[in-house]
Each structure stands twice: as C-alpha cells, then as structure tokens.
Amino acid sequence: MEDKGTIKSKLTSCIIFAIFVYNIFTYLQGFYNFYINVGLVIGCIVIMKKTEEDWTRIKKEILFWLIMVSLISIALLFSSRESQILTVSKQNLHLLIAAILFQLIFHHFENIYTESIFDGLTLIIIISSLGTLIILLDDTNASRQLAGAASDDERALYYSQGVGGYGYIYFITFFNYALLSRFRKTKQTIKNLILILCFSINIVTIVRSSYSTAILFEVILIGLFVSNISKSKNASFIFLGVVFLMYFLKDYLIIFIQEISESYELSYVTKRMDQLLDAEKTDSYDSLRRAILYKQSFLEFLDKPLFGGDNYGNHSQFLDALGRFGACGLSYLAYHIHLIKNSIKSLKGINFLIFYFLFLLFASLDRIDAKEIIIGIYCIIPLIFYLYGQDNKNDIQITEKEMS
Fold it and tell me: Which of 182, 228, 339, 366 qualifies as a FRET site for 298, CA 20 to 30 Å off?
C-alpha cells in the first residue's frame, strides 16, 4: 500500500502535468479559461508539501509582480486609462503563475515525477504540432490567421482542428532547443526516437506556419546547439562569428530563402523576403510593416515618455511596453529579466546566456504575451535545462526509481 507521501507526489505531478497541458495543448485552446488555470495553480500550491523557504519564495515573486503591475497601473491611471488596469493586470498574471510554478517544481524535484511529466508533455506537443501541420499542408495561412486576421467563426474552426497560433509556434521554436538538450542526455532508444519525431514535426510545422521570425530564430538556435556540443572551447564564439557572417551575407541569404519559400508556397515568408530585398535596394525599411509598427511605439514613447498612450504598434513586446506605459513600462522589461535570472542562476555555460539573450531579442521583434510562450520560457524550458542541460552545476537527475 502506498504511503501518503507517494500519493501526494503522484497527485502533485498530475496537477502540474494538467497545468502544462491546459496551457500548451492546441486542442484545448478553444476551451481555455483563465480562472481554471489559476485554480489549477492554487491547487498545486495547496497540495504540495511546502517549507518556510517555499512561502518566502512565493511571497518574493508576488512582491516583484505587484511592483511591476503597480507601476503599470500608475501609468494607466495618470493617463486617464484606468479602465484598462484590471485587463492589463489579468494579462500579466500569467507571468506570476509561471514564476510561482517554476519555484515550486525546481525546489521539489525529489517529490515530483518530472521524467513522466516531460514524457507526457512531449507526446502532447507531437499531437498538437501534427494537428497543426495537417491543416497547414492544406491551408498555409491557418496559423497566421490566428495571429489576428481570423474572424470569430474562423478562429473557432481552427481551434476545433487543433491549429496552433503564434504563441504555440513561437513556443515550439524555443522548445526544440530544450528538446535537443534532452536528446543528448537520454540513453533510451525508444525515448530518443520519440524526441526525434517531436523535433522533426515541430521543424516542419514552424516552416509551414510561415512565421519568418520563428524560422530565423530556429536556424540560429540549432546553430547554437551544434556549437554547444562541439568539443572546441571557442565553439560559442565561433557561433557568434557565424551569426555576424550571416548578417554580412544577408542579401544572398534573403534571395536563397525567397526561392525556397516560393517553391513551398510559403506566401508570408515570400512576401517578407520581397520586402527585405526592396528595403536593401532603396536603403529604407519604411516598406516593412513591422518597422512602421516599431517606429509607432517608439514615437508614442517619445511623445508621452512618462505614462505612454494607446497609439503603440503592437508588434514588439518591449517597445510596445514603452509606448503604452512610458517609463513605467521599464518595470515590465525588468520583471522579464528577473524571471530569466531565476532560470539561469544555477546554470553555468555561455550557451544558456546566449539562449536567453536570443529570447530577449525575439521579444524586441515580436509579441511574447501568449500563455504558451510564458509558461514555456519561464517554467517548462528552464526545468528541462536543469534536468538535461550539459552545464548543470548540481547535475540533477531525478528518476521514478529513486523516488519510490
């Protein structure tokens, strides 16, 4: 008969797995309810065995989050937009959920069936990516439509078919790097085959989704992993050198990508490459829609530097924070840096610093407010790094056998 500790560990693991699935599984996105998500996290806190240190960590995370939200609320209040305070606070609550969940799981590896959780999550991602890919093979605009252009009826149809939007696509872009880290440490053949399958389906899904930024960062992240497993001591610096070389050869790369995107009918990628080529020829990026939106957010910040306004571009998470909340928006960037610091403080190796630097760069180019990205970057991926990253300080490897 199982003791109470084992039963509590299994129940806690089931709730954590349920939270991950509820936030990531594309077939559940049409049924997503924010309050259910909060309830699951509260359930996890109540059931999990906690120490005084745990409560201290939770209180610390809540305090930092409240400071950020308070400064943003001040910006809204003093710019006569107090009606937005509740909505903005609710949107940012996803960050607090990810922070608390990460702290609880990381400091209680020995009481959680982490191996089984990530095995199950990998299968969920395979199903989600495969479902998305099947639709994208017939409708290449499906995922892009969910980024904002789809009507309510179209959105409901895509959700019922399990199509992942920009949040899911961006999540698997960074998740693939963690997947490769796990592949390198896993010795079981069947698990490795499943990891390869997941990685491969994700790659094709990212390409077919036509998010050019996601495709670019996936190439860079794969290059980072290759440099990471290289035996050369200067591999990371070689990787950075290759990135700079790609920048100087960008004209040839744009033409090459343009030809490939035309061959595979990736209309959005082809359009973006055409815009980039025009920009290079005219030496002006005014034809690029995102450049216009970046400029719009920045000009709004310059016009209203203290508290911001509503005339922001809505295409860059950090520039939008400045445009929308003014100087108070710096608290938003500071809180993200705090979450990243939580993730990397026990990891050593320049590759992890580069990974999170790339994510911050990504957040400067696109939106990262989707629940999939937040729970992925600030909870799921760093936990995989701790378990399977080659540069762990503590070399944590918890298995079910050790827990029983």
Answer: 339
CA neighbours closer than 13 Å in the CB half-sphere of residue 286? 3
- State how far the Cα of 222 lies from the Cα of 198, in Å rounded to an integer: 15
More confident residue, 277 or 298: 298
Q: What is the dihedral of CA 378, 384, 386, 391, to 10 degrees?
A: -110
CA 49 to the chain's CA centroid: 28
Lowest mean pLDDT, pick from 36-40, 277-281, 344-348: 277-281
Give strand pairing partners of 347. Answer: 392
- 186-196 as b/e, with b when 16 or more CB fall inside 10 Å? eeeeebeebbe
pTM: 0.86
Q: How far is CA 287 from CA 272, 276, 294, 308, 358, in A?
A: 10, 9, 12, 26, 25
Residues 42-64 have a mean pLDDT of 86
Look-up of token digits 């016009």: 303
87/344 Cα distance (integer angstroms) = 30
| Token reading at 297 | 């957010």
CA 96 to chain centre: 15
Measure the CA–CA gap between 175 and 192, rounded to whole angstroms: 16
Which of 6, 44, 65, 45 has the alpha carbon at shortest distance from 339? 65
Which pLDDT does position 283 carry in this prediction? 52
Q: From CA 78, how far away is CA 83, in angstroms rounded?
A: 12
